[in-house]
Amino acid sequence: MSTEINTGSRLPRWAIAGLAAAVLLALGAMLFTNSRITSAALDEAAGLHATDMSLAAQDVAMKSIGQVVLLAQDFELGVAGSDAVQAAAIEAERTLAELESRTGDLPTQLADETGPSLESFQLVAAEVIRLARNEEATAAAETLVTQLEPLAQEIASEITAERDERAQAVADVQNMVGRLAQLLGFLIAFLLPFGAILAYRQSARRQLEAAETHLDARLDAERAVGRAKNQFIANISHELRTPLTSIYGFSEVLLDQGFVDPEVAGDLVGLINSESAELARMVEDLLVAAHDEDVPLPIETTQVDIAAELDAVIAPFRRHNIVVGGSHAPAMVLGDQLRIRQILRNLLSNAVLHGGPTIRIYGDNAGPNYVISVEDDGEGVPEHVEERLFSRFVHKGESPLTAGSVGLGLAVARLLAEAMGGSLDYERITGRTSFVLALPLAGGTEEVYEPDEILVPTTG
Questions:
Q1: What's the CA gap between 192 and 186, in Å, rounded?
Q2: Which has the higher per-residue pLDDT, 153 or 389?
Q3: For residue 297, with 0-12 CB atoms within 10 Å meaning exposed, 13-18 middle and 19 or more buried, which class applies?
Q4: Is residue 260 part of a domain?
Q5: Are residues 168 and 303 in the same domain?
Protein backbone atom coordinates (compact mmCIF):
# COMPACT_ATOMS: atom_id res chain seq x y z
CA MET A 1 0.00 0.00 0.00
CA SER A 2 1.37 3.39 -0.94
CA THR A 3 2.04 5.83 1.86
CA GLU A 4 1.98 8.92 -0.36
CA ILE A 5 -0.27 11.70 0.89
CA ASN A 6 -2.01 14.14 -1.42
CA THR A 7 -0.27 17.47 -0.81
CA GLY A 8 -1.76 19.36 -3.74
CA SER A 9 -4.04 21.47 -1.56
CA ARG A 10 -1.72 21.72 1.43
CA LEU A 11 -0.32 25.16 2.24
CA PRO A 12 3.46 25.21 2.57
CA ARG A 13 4.65 25.45 6.14
CA TRP A 14 6.45 28.72 5.43
CA ALA A 15 3.21 30.20 4.05
CA ILE A 16 1.27 29.18 7.17
CA ALA A 17 4.02 30.55 9.39
CA GLY A 18 4.14 33.80 7.39
CA LEU A 19 0.37 34.20 7.55
CA ALA A 20 0.35 33.59 11.29
CA ALA A 21 3.21 36.06 11.77
CA ALA A 22 1.43 38.69 9.67
CA VAL A 23 -1.78 38.27 11.61
CA LEU A 24 0.02 38.47 14.94
CA LEU A 25 1.94 41.54 13.73
CA ALA A 26 -1.30 43.20 12.62
CA LEU A 27 -2.96 42.45 15.94
CA GLY A 28 0.05 43.76 17.80
CA ALA A 29 0.09 46.94 15.72
CA MET A 30 -3.61 47.46 16.32
CA LEU A 31 -3.24 46.95 20.03
CA PHE A 32 -0.26 49.34 20.13
CA THR A 33 -2.16 51.94 18.09
CA ASN A 34 -5.20 51.57 20.30
CA SER A 35 -3.00 52.08 23.34
CA ARG A 36 -1.45 55.22 21.86
CA ILE A 37 -4.84 56.57 20.83
CA THR A 38 -6.25 55.87 24.27
CA SER A 39 -3.32 57.71 25.86
CA ALA A 40 -3.87 60.69 23.55
CA ALA A 41 -7.58 60.63 24.33
CA LEU A 42 -6.82 60.79 28.03
CA ASP A 43 -4.58 63.82 27.47
CA GLU A 44 -7.26 65.56 25.42
CA ALA A 45 -9.90 64.75 28.01
CA ALA A 46 -7.70 66.17 30.78
CA GLY A 47 -7.28 69.41 28.79
CA LEU A 48 -11.01 69.56 28.11
CA HIS A 49 -11.75 69.16 31.80
CA ALA A 50 -9.26 71.91 32.71
CA THR A 51 -10.80 74.38 30.22
CA ASP A 52 -14.34 73.62 31.42
CA MET A 53 -13.39 74.14 35.04
CA SER A 54 -11.53 77.37 34.21
CA LEU A 55 -14.55 78.77 32.35
CA ALA A 56 -16.80 77.82 35.25
CA ALA A 57 -14.44 79.41 37.80
CA GLN A 58 -14.27 82.63 35.73
CA ASP A 59 -18.03 82.78 35.47
CA VAL A 60 -18.40 82.36 39.24
CA ALA A 61 -15.72 85.03 39.86
CA MET A 62 -17.44 87.55 37.57
CA LYS A 63 -20.79 86.97 39.27
CA SER A 64 -19.22 87.35 42.72
CA ILE A 65 -17.53 90.62 41.73
CA GLY A 66 -20.78 91.88 40.22
CA GLN A 67 -22.50 91.05 43.52
CA VAL A 68 -19.93 93.14 45.41
CA VAL A 69 -20.53 96.15 43.13
CA LEU A 70 -24.33 95.87 43.47
CA LEU A 71 -24.09 95.71 47.26
CA ALA A 72 -21.75 98.73 47.26
CA GLN A 73 -24.32 100.70 45.22
CA ASP A 74 -27.09 99.62 47.61
CA PHE A 75 -24.96 100.74 50.55
CA GLU A 76 -24.73 104.22 49.01
CA LEU A 77 -28.50 104.22 48.67
CA GLY A 78 -28.86 103.06 52.28
CA VAL A 79 -30.54 99.74 51.52
CA ALA A 80 -27.56 97.52 52.41
CA GLY A 81 -25.09 97.43 55.24
CA SER A 82 -21.32 97.59 55.12
CA ASP A 83 -21.14 94.05 56.55
CA ALA A 84 -22.89 92.68 53.48
CA VAL A 85 -20.43 94.49 51.25
CA GLN A 86 -17.45 93.12 53.19
CA ALA A 87 -18.82 89.56 53.13
CA ALA A 88 -19.42 89.75 49.37
CA ALA A 89 -15.91 91.13 48.88
CA ILE A 90 -14.41 88.21 50.83
CA GLU A 91 -16.40 85.74 48.71
CA ALA A 92 -15.26 87.46 45.52
CA GLU A 93 -11.63 87.22 46.61
CA ARG A 94 -12.15 83.49 47.27
CA THR A 95 -13.55 82.94 43.76
CA LEU A 96 -10.58 84.82 42.29
CA ALA A 97 -8.22 82.47 44.16
CA GLU A 98 -10.22 79.50 42.82
CA LEU A 99 -9.94 80.94 39.28
CA GLU A 100 -6.19 81.29 39.67
CA SER A 101 -5.96 77.67 40.82
CA ARG A 102 -8.08 76.38 37.96
CA THR A 103 -6.19 78.27 35.29
CA GLY A 104 -2.98 76.73 36.63
CA ASP A 105 -4.22 73.37 35.29
CA LEU A 106 -4.67 74.67 31.74
CA PRO A 107 -2.56 73.08 28.97
CA THR A 108 0.88 74.65 28.78
CA GLN A 109 0.38 76.36 25.44
CA LEU A 110 -2.98 77.83 26.42
CA ALA A 111 -1.61 78.95 29.81
CA ASP A 112 1.20 80.77 28.04
CA GLU A 113 -1.22 82.45 25.63
CA THR A 114 -3.73 83.53 28.28
CA GLY A 115 -1.21 84.29 31.01
CA PRO A 116 -0.99 88.09 30.49
CA SER A 117 -4.74 88.45 30.17
CA LEU A 118 -5.30 86.43 33.34
CA GLU A 119 -2.80 88.56 35.29
CA SER A 120 -4.54 91.72 34.09
CA PHE A 121 -7.90 90.20 34.98
CA GLN A 122 -6.73 89.44 38.52
CA LEU A 123 -5.38 92.99 39.00
CA VAL A 124 -8.50 94.71 37.64
CA ALA A 125 -10.77 92.41 39.65
CA ALA A 126 -8.82 93.24 42.83
CA GLU A 127 -9.17 96.94 42.03
CA VAL A 128 -12.95 96.62 41.58
CA ILE A 129 -13.26 94.87 44.95
CA ARG A 130 -11.09 97.55 46.62
CA LEU A 131 -13.23 100.37 45.20
CA ALA A 132 -16.42 98.65 46.36
CA ARG A 133 -15.04 98.23 49.88
CA ASN A 134 -14.02 101.92 49.99
CA GLU A 135 -17.56 103.01 49.17
CA GLU A 136 -16.63 104.05 45.66
CA ALA A 137 -19.46 102.16 44.00
CA THR A 138 -19.61 104.33 40.88
CA ALA A 139 -15.88 103.93 40.14
CA ALA A 140 -16.14 100.20 40.87
CA ALA A 141 -19.06 99.80 38.47
CA GLU A 142 -17.32 101.78 35.74
CA THR A 143 -14.08 99.70 36.10
CA LEU A 144 -16.15 96.52 36.04
CA VAL A 145 -17.90 97.48 32.80
CA THR A 146 -15.07 99.18 30.93
CA GLN A 147 -12.07 97.06 31.93
CA LEU A 148 -12.96 93.81 33.69
CA GLU A 149 -15.73 92.57 31.43
CA PRO A 150 -13.66 92.98 28.18
CA LEU A 151 -10.80 91.07 29.79
CA ALA A 152 -13.19 88.34 30.94
CA GLN A 153 -14.67 88.02 27.43
CA GLU A 154 -11.19 87.83 25.89
CA ILE A 155 -10.08 85.13 28.29
CA ALA A 156 -13.33 83.21 27.94
CA SER A 157 -13.04 83.37 24.15
CA GLU A 158 -9.52 81.90 24.19
CA ILE A 159 -10.41 79.16 26.69
CA THR A 160 -13.65 78.34 24.84
CA ALA A 161 -11.77 77.93 21.55
CA GLU A 162 -9.32 75.58 23.22
CA ARG A 163 -12.17 73.70 24.88
CA ASP A 164 -14.00 73.23 21.58
CA GLU A 165 -10.83 72.03 19.93
CA ARG A 166 -10.22 69.57 22.75
CA ALA A 167 -13.81 68.37 22.63
CA GLN A 168 -13.53 67.70 18.91
CA ALA A 169 -10.27 65.84 19.42
CA VAL A 170 -11.86 63.66 22.09
CA ALA A 171 -14.80 62.93 19.77
CA ASP A 172 -12.40 62.03 16.94
CA VAL A 173 -10.43 59.73 19.20
CA GLN A 174 -13.62 58.04 20.38
CA ASN A 175 -14.68 57.46 16.80
CA MET A 176 -11.27 56.05 15.90
CA VAL A 177 -11.23 53.78 18.93
CA GLY A 178 -14.69 52.58 18.00
CA ARG A 179 -13.56 51.76 14.46
CA LEU A 180 -10.47 49.98 15.73
CA ALA A 181 -12.58 48.00 18.16
CA GLN A 182 -14.92 46.99 15.33
CA LEU A 183 -11.97 45.98 13.14
CA LEU A 184 -10.35 44.06 15.98
CA GLY A 185 -13.64 42.33 16.71
CA PHE A 186 -14.00 41.40 13.05
CA LEU A 187 -10.47 40.02 12.91
CA ILE A 188 -11.01 38.02 16.07
CA ALA A 189 -14.35 36.74 14.82
CA PHE A 190 -12.66 35.77 11.55
CA LEU A 191 -9.43 34.38 12.95
CA LEU A 192 -10.97 32.19 15.63
CA PRO A 193 -12.90 29.95 13.21
CA PHE A 194 -10.06 30.18 10.67
CA GLY A 195 -7.55 29.10 13.32
CA ALA A 196 -9.87 26.32 14.47
CA ILE A 197 -10.29 25.10 10.88
CA LEU A 198 -6.54 25.27 10.28
CA ALA A 199 -5.80 23.43 13.53
CA TYR A 200 -8.41 20.78 12.72
CA ARG A 201 -6.96 20.38 9.23
CA GLN A 202 -3.44 19.95 10.57
CA SER A 203 -4.65 17.51 13.23
CA ALA A 204 -6.64 15.52 10.68
CA ARG A 205 -3.61 15.37 8.37
CA ARG A 206 -1.38 14.14 11.19
CA GLN A 207 -3.96 11.54 12.17
CA LEU A 208 -4.20 10.39 8.56
CA GLU A 209 -0.44 10.08 8.30
CA ALA A 210 -0.30 8.20 11.62
CA ALA A 211 -3.13 5.89 10.53
CA GLU A 212 -1.43 5.15 7.21
CA THR A 213 1.90 4.57 8.95
CA HIS A 214 0.22 2.24 11.45
CA LEU A 215 -1.59 0.41 8.66
CA ASP A 216 1.64 0.00 6.69
CA ALA A 217 3.37 -1.28 9.82
CA ARG A 218 0.58 -3.80 10.37
CA LEU A 219 0.76 -4.91 6.75
CA ASP A 220 4.53 -5.26 6.97
CA ALA A 221 4.16 -7.24 10.21
CA GLU A 222 1.54 -9.49 8.62
CA ARG A 223 3.77 -10.02 5.59
CA ALA A 224 6.69 -10.86 7.91
CA VAL A 225 4.51 -13.31 9.84
CA GLY A 226 3.38 -14.85 6.56
CA ARG A 227 6.96 -15.19 5.35
CA ALA A 228 8.04 -16.68 8.69
CA LYS A 229 5.11 -19.07 8.59
CA ASN A 230 5.92 -20.20 5.06
CA GLN A 231 9.61 -20.56 5.92
CA PHE A 232 8.78 -22.51 9.05
CA ILE A 233 6.44 -24.85 7.20
CA ALA A 234 9.11 -25.44 4.54
CA ASN A 235 11.81 -26.07 7.15
CA ILE A 236 9.70 -28.28 9.36
CA SER A 237 8.67 -30.29 6.32
CA HIS A 238 12.33 -30.75 5.45
CA GLU A 239 13.29 -31.70 9.01
CA LEU A 240 10.44 -34.16 9.42
CA ARG A 241 11.20 -35.67 6.04
CA THR A 242 14.71 -36.71 7.18
CA PRO A 243 13.68 -39.22 9.88
CA LEU A 244 10.61 -40.28 7.87
CA THR A 245 12.80 -41.04 4.85
CA SER A 246 15.17 -43.08 7.02
CA ILE A 247 12.32 -45.00 8.64
CA TYR A 248 10.72 -45.67 5.27
CA GLY A 249 14.02 -46.68 3.67
CA PHE A 250 15.08 -49.02 6.46
CA SER A 251 11.65 -50.64 6.56
CA GLU A 252 11.81 -51.18 2.75
CA VAL A 253 15.15 -52.95 3.19
CA LEU A 254 13.67 -55.18 5.86
CA LEU A 255 10.68 -55.98 3.66
CA ASP A 256 12.86 -56.75 0.66
CA GLN A 257 15.59 -58.75 2.40
CA GLY A 258 13.64 -60.01 5.37
CA PHE A 259 15.52 -61.11 8.46
CA VAL A 260 18.05 -63.28 6.66
CA ASP A 261 20.92 -61.58 8.48
CA PRO A 262 19.83 -61.05 12.10
CA GLU A 263 22.73 -58.67 12.77
CA VAL A 264 21.83 -56.39 9.84
CA ALA A 265 18.15 -56.61 10.72
CA GLY A 266 18.93 -55.66 14.30
CA ASP A 267 20.94 -52.63 13.17
CA LEU A 268 18.12 -51.54 10.87
CA VAL A 269 15.53 -51.92 13.62
CA GLY A 270 17.79 -49.90 15.92
CA LEU A 271 18.07 -47.15 13.32
CA ILE A 272 14.32 -47.16 12.81
CA ASN A 273 13.85 -46.87 16.55
CA SER A 274 16.32 -43.97 16.79
CA GLU A 275 14.77 -42.06 13.92
CA SER A 276 11.27 -42.73 15.31
CA ALA A 277 12.36 -41.34 18.68
CA GLU A 278 13.76 -38.21 16.99
CA LEU A 279 10.57 -37.83 15.00
CA ALA A 280 8.49 -38.23 18.14
CA ARG A 281 10.60 -35.57 19.89
CA MET A 282 10.01 -33.13 17.05
CA VAL A 283 6.27 -33.75 17.12
CA GLU A 284 6.14 -33.31 20.88
CA ASP A 285 8.00 -29.99 20.60
CA LEU A 286 5.62 -28.81 17.90
CA LEU A 287 2.59 -29.69 20.02
CA VAL A 288 3.96 -27.73 22.98
CA ALA A 289 4.95 -24.74 20.82
CA ALA A 290 1.52 -24.66 19.18
CA HIS A 291 -0.24 -24.58 22.55
CA ASP A 292 -2.33 -21.45 23.22
CA GLU A 293 -0.27 -19.10 25.41
CA ASP A 294 -3.39 -17.93 27.26
CA VAL A 295 -4.20 -21.50 28.37
CA PRO A 296 -1.94 -23.27 30.91
CA LEU A 297 -0.08 -26.33 29.65
CA PRO A 298 -1.60 -29.59 30.87
CA ILE A 299 0.77 -30.80 33.60
CA GLU A 300 0.21 -33.97 35.64
CA THR A 301 2.28 -33.33 38.74
CA THR A 302 3.56 -36.42 40.54
CA GLN A 303 6.68 -37.49 42.38
CA VAL A 304 9.25 -38.43 39.75
CA ASP A 305 12.47 -40.42 40.27
CA ILE A 306 14.83 -38.01 38.55
CA ALA A 307 17.81 -40.42 38.53
CA ALA A 308 15.73 -43.03 36.70
CA GLU A 309 14.61 -40.44 34.16
CA LEU A 310 18.21 -39.34 33.56
CA ASP A 311 19.26 -42.96 33.00
CA ALA A 312 16.34 -43.52 30.64
CA VAL A 313 17.21 -40.46 28.57
CA ILE A 314 20.96 -41.15 28.48
CA ALA A 315 20.62 -44.84 27.52
CA PRO A 316 19.54 -44.39 23.85
CA PHE A 317 22.45 -42.02 23.21
CA ARG A 318 24.92 -44.50 24.66
CA ARG A 319 23.53 -47.21 22.43
CA HIS A 320 24.61 -45.03 19.51
CA ASN A 321 28.13 -44.77 20.91
CA ILE A 322 27.66 -41.24 22.27
CA VAL A 323 29.67 -40.84 25.45
CA VAL A 324 27.75 -39.04 28.20
CA GLY A 325 29.63 -38.60 31.45
CA GLY A 326 28.94 -36.99 34.77
CA SER A 327 27.09 -38.05 37.90
CA HIS A 328 23.71 -37.49 39.48
CA ALA A 329 22.27 -38.06 42.92
CA PRO A 330 18.98 -39.96 43.23
CA ALA A 331 16.06 -37.84 44.35
CA MET A 332 12.33 -37.40 43.96
CA VAL A 333 11.14 -34.22 42.24
CA LEU A 334 7.68 -32.77 41.63
CA GLY A 335 6.66 -32.62 38.00
CA ASP A 336 5.20 -34.36 34.99
CA GLN A 337 7.25 -37.47 34.15
CA LEU A 338 6.72 -37.21 30.39
CA ARG A 339 7.46 -33.46 30.38
CA ILE A 340 10.65 -33.93 32.44
CA ARG A 341 11.84 -36.61 30.04
CA GLN A 342 11.06 -34.31 27.10
CA ILE A 343 13.15 -31.49 28.66
CA LEU A 344 16.12 -33.80 29.34
CA ARG A 345 15.94 -35.30 25.85
CA ASN A 346 15.88 -31.82 24.27
CA LEU A 347 18.87 -30.63 26.32
CA LEU A 348 20.92 -33.74 25.57
CA SER A 349 20.01 -33.65 21.87
CA ASN A 350 20.99 -29.99 21.75
CA ALA A 351 24.39 -30.81 23.27
CA VAL A 352 24.95 -33.70 20.83
CA LEU A 353 23.92 -31.71 17.75
CA HIS A 354 25.43 -28.30 18.56
CA GLY A 355 27.91 -28.81 21.40
CA GLY A 356 31.43 -30.15 21.72
CA PRO A 357 32.56 -33.80 21.79
CA THR A 358 32.66 -34.04 25.57
CA ILE A 359 29.19 -34.12 27.15
CA ARG A 360 28.48 -34.42 30.85
CA ILE A 361 25.35 -34.36 32.97
CA TYR A 362 25.46 -33.53 36.68
CA GLY A 363 22.53 -33.58 39.08
CA ASP A 364 22.31 -32.86 42.79
CA ASN A 365 20.26 -31.09 45.46
CA ALA A 366 20.50 -27.33 45.78
CA GLY A 367 18.24 -26.01 48.53
CA PRO A 368 14.58 -26.65 47.68
CA ASN A 369 15.45 -27.67 44.09
CA TYR A 370 17.15 -30.44 42.24
CA VAL A 371 19.60 -28.89 39.79
CA ILE A 372 20.69 -30.64 36.60
CA SER A 373 23.53 -29.24 34.51
CA VAL A 374 23.99 -30.45 30.91
CA GLU A 375 27.50 -29.43 29.85
CA ASP A 376 29.64 -29.62 26.72
CA ASP A 377 32.93 -28.16 25.59
CA GLY A 378 31.61 -26.58 22.40
CA GLU A 379 32.02 -22.97 21.26
CA GLY A 380 28.75 -21.84 22.80
CA VAL A 381 26.64 -19.13 21.23
CA PRO A 382 27.56 -15.52 20.33
CA GLU A 383 26.84 -12.94 23.01
CA HIS A 384 24.27 -11.12 20.86
CA VAL A 385 22.27 -14.36 20.60
CA GLU A 386 22.18 -15.22 24.31
CA GLU A 387 19.25 -12.91 25.09
CA ARG A 388 17.06 -14.66 22.50
CA LEU A 389 18.48 -18.15 22.88
CA PHE A 390 15.23 -19.45 24.38
CA SER A 391 13.05 -17.80 21.75
CA ARG A 392 11.25 -20.04 19.32
CA PHE A 393 12.90 -20.96 16.02
CA VAL A 394 16.34 -19.67 17.11
CA HIS A 395 19.28 -22.05 17.11
CA LYS A 396 22.93 -20.95 17.05
CA GLY A 397 21.63 -17.50 16.15
CA GLU A 398 22.50 -17.97 12.50
CA SER A 399 19.42 -19.58 11.02
CA PRO A 400 15.95 -20.33 12.37
CA LEU A 401 16.44 -24.08 11.85
CA THR A 402 19.43 -26.40 11.83
CA ALA A 403 19.92 -29.94 10.76
CA GLY A 404 18.03 -32.38 12.94
CA SER A 405 16.12 -29.65 14.78
CA VAL A 406 13.02 -27.55 14.34
CA GLY A 407 14.50 -24.74 16.44
CA LEU A 408 12.08 -25.29 19.29
CA GLY A 409 13.98 -27.56 21.69
CA LEU A 410 15.34 -24.93 24.09
CA ALA A 411 12.22 -22.75 23.97
CA VAL A 412 10.01 -25.77 24.70
CA ALA A 413 12.34 -26.96 27.47
CA ARG A 414 12.18 -23.63 29.30
CA LEU A 415 8.41 -23.41 28.77
CA LEU A 416 7.89 -26.86 30.31
CA ALA A 417 10.32 -26.19 33.16
CA GLU A 418 8.51 -23.01 34.17
CA ALA A 419 5.13 -24.73 33.86
CA MET A 420 6.31 -27.21 36.50
CA GLY A 421 7.57 -24.48 38.84
CA GLY A 422 11.20 -24.78 37.78
CA SER A 423 13.63 -22.84 35.60
CA LEU A 424 16.12 -23.27 32.77
CA ASP A 425 19.12 -21.00 32.19
CA TYR A 426 22.22 -20.80 30.02
CA GLU A 427 25.76 -20.36 31.35
CA ARG A 428 29.13 -20.02 29.68
CA ILE A 429 32.01 -20.53 32.14
CA THR A 430 35.70 -21.18 31.41
CA GLY A 431 35.21 -22.63 27.97
CA ARG A 432 32.22 -24.84 28.81
CA THR A 433 28.56 -24.40 27.92
CA SER A 434 25.97 -25.36 30.54
CA PHE A 435 22.19 -25.50 30.45
CA VAL A 436 21.05 -25.53 34.09
CA LEU A 437 17.64 -27.04 34.86
CA ALA A 438 16.09 -26.59 38.32
CA LEU A 439 13.06 -28.63 39.45
CA PRO A 440 11.36 -28.53 42.88
CA LEU A 441 12.29 -31.39 45.22
CA ALA A 442 9.62 -33.69 46.55
CA GLY A 443 11.64 -35.45 49.30
CA GLY A 444 15.07 -36.46 50.63
CA THR A 445 18.00 -37.89 48.65
CA GLU A 446 20.18 -40.96 48.98
CA GLU A 447 23.85 -41.59 48.23
CA VAL A 448 25.22 -40.25 44.94
CA TYR A 449 24.81 -42.75 42.14
CA GLU A 450 27.61 -42.83 39.58
CA PRO A 451 26.79 -44.57 36.27
CA ASP A 452 29.36 -46.09 33.97
CA GLU A 453 31.84 -43.88 32.14
CA ILE A 454 31.91 -41.18 34.83
CA LEU A 455 34.00 -38.14 33.87
CA VAL A 456 35.53 -35.78 36.44
CA PRO A 457 33.88 -32.28 36.23
CA THR A 458 36.03 -29.73 34.44
CA THR A 459 36.88 -26.66 36.51
CA GLY A 460 39.20 -24.87 34.13
A1: 10
A2: 153
A3: middle
A4: no
A5: no
